[in-house]
Every structure is written in structure tokens, then in C-alpha cells.
């Protein structure tokens, strides 16, 4: 089930995303005492993360994961983990042990194995944030590649031939991203309209492989 939320501009979309994160966190902390969130990369999430610094919550009960990562050194500015740290995580009292960075500097295969082990004891994520590429990719799951949709797929996949640089990456599999209480896509820019249209038509895109039981909320800053 896809629930489409259309906004007049990116600022309104980001405000709605912030509210969704806040609500999901409050529900998880009240019901389960911890909040497990998967972060997306990109400029739109970066602005949302920056706004999260002002949120009043029990940061010690947050657990941070990443939907994908580029196989680059930890201090490379293209790393999703560094972006999230600079925009948000380094400014708050989240225990370092609760920030589960993908060790992509080890190389795709080794990092995917290590992250699958990290996630082995984690139940359903409370919230997964994702973006959408112009080709319909999400996280680092690209068209024409293995998305890890089966129940036996590993939690994390090594990607060795991504069509956009760098080619070597690690991505959570579609089945692991789908194991979530809530999934929210943040999509900005009219260049994404063809991919959204293809998704709406039912084309076999990587984004369409994310199928949590509760359905998916898709936030866009254009009419759908």
C-alpha cells in the first residue's frame, strides 16, 4: 500500500517529515522503550537531520542505522555516516554504541557481512527513511541488480557495480528495509517525476520492492 503526500515545496515536506519522525520516536519510546531508525543519505534528509537537533526526546534511547553506504574512508565527505554526524548526531547525547555505522571502508563483501551480523539481533525497525533516484533506485538498490527481496536474503548486500560513483557500496536488502513498522520516502525535485510515475504504474523499480506490512508513506514536493 502506497500513501502519497504532496507538498507545495521542500520546506513543507521537510516539516512533515520532521513531525513523522517525532511521532514515530514518541510511540516507540512509550511502547518499547527504544527507537530504532534507519537513515537515508541526500540533501533533503540532511536538512531534516539538522532540524532534529531541536527535538526534545530521550536521545539515549535512540538507535541509529544506515540504509546504505559508499565504500570510502570514514572521513570522506561522500559518506552518509559523516553527513549525518555533521548535521545531527555529533551535536546530541546519543551513546556512540547506539550509532551503528556501516564499516564500508572494509570493502563491500566484508562490510555487508559485518553489518548483517550487527542487525542479526535487531527486530523490526521503528522507522526507515529512504530516498528515490531518477532511475527508481533507493538506498543502493539499483535497477537490474539483486535487491535481496527473498526471505532468505541477507540483511546487507555488497554492491560492486553501482551505475553512479562510487561503484562499490553496501546496502540494506529490500527484505530487511521492509522489516519495519513504518517506511517513509522523501522525494524532492521535478527530475524525480518520471520515476514516481513509473512507480505509480507498477513498474518493477527497486523502490517498489520495499513492502512493509503497514505500507509506505511517500512524501513529494510536487503534484501526484
Can you walk through the features of this model?
This protein is an alpha/beta fold. It has a single domain, classed as Rossmann fold, CATH 3.40.50. 30% of the residues lie in helices and 18% in strands. It has six helices and nine strands, in the order E-H-E-H-E-E-H-H-E-E-E-H-E-H-E. Strands 1-9-8-5-2-3 form a six-stranded parallel β-sheet, with helices on one face. A three-stranded antiparallel β-sheet has the order 4-7-6. Strand 2, helix 2 and strand 3 form a beta-alpha-beta unit. The model has no long low-confidence stretch (mean pLDDT 96).
Q: How many beta-strand runs?
A: 9
Structurally, how many domains make up the residues? 1
Distance between the termini: 16 Å
Regions with little confidence, pLDDT below 50 for 5+ residues:
none
Based on the structure given, which CATH architecture is correct?
3-Layer(aba) Sandwich
What is the C-level CATH assignment?
Alpha Beta
The percentage helix is: 25-40%
Summing up helix and strand content along with how strands pair, one would put the structural category as alpha/beta
Architecture blueprint of SSEs:
Layout: E1 2-6, H1 10-32, E2 35-39, H2 43-52, E3 62-66, E4 68-70, H3 80-87, H4 108-119, E5 127-130, E6 156-159, E7 169-172, H5 174-178, E8 183-187, H6 193-201, E9 216-220
Parallel strand pairs: 1-9, 2-3, 2-5, 5-8, 8-9
Antiparallel strand pairs: 4-7, 6-7
Helix pairs in contact: 1-2
